[in-house]
Amino acid sequence: MNIVGVSACPTGVAHTYLAAEALTKAFKAKNHQVKIETQGASGIENEITPEDVQKADYVILTKDIAIKDEERFAGKKVIKVMSGVAIQKANAIVQKLENLNAENTNK
Questions:
Q1: What pLDDT was estimated at residue 107?
Q2: Is 106 a known active-site residue?
């Protein structure tokens, strides 16, 4: 699978980067392509390009605060989670998307 996502939290510091790191590690461990943009105290880092969005099977957005430019993901399968959930349950998120992807492939 090819996954893109945006991680952001109210202060734009710890949870933003911890969630991005947890998701990146979990998806890479299962040999999926993943790119997580952070919108934090340092601004936007690892920015997702239109090409990244086009290739993505799923989009993961943290929903602690509004994501800048969320409209760029229109038409994509979007999953929204709290940053704390992304940090603590990144492997479960991977499993859920693998299951969804398998269901959609078998249809």
A1: 67
A2: no
The total of structural domains in the chain comes to 1
Report d(CA 33, CA 31) in Å as an integer: 7
Catalytic residue among 9, 26, 93, 94: 9
Full residue range of the structural domain in which residue 49 is found = 2-86
Give 44-83 pLDDT, tens digit per residue: 999 999 999 999 999 999 989 999 999 999 999 999 999 9
3-class secondary structure per residue, the chain: CEEEEEECCCCCCHHHHHHHHHHHHHHHHCCCEEEEEEEECCEEECCCCHHHHHHCCEEEEECCCCCCCHHHHCCCCEEEECHHHHHHCHHHHHHHHHHHHHHHHCC
In a domain, 106, yes or no: no
Residue 91 forms part of a structural domain: no
Instruction: Return the CATH number at 63.
Output: 3.40.50.2300
- pLDDT the model gives residue 83: 94
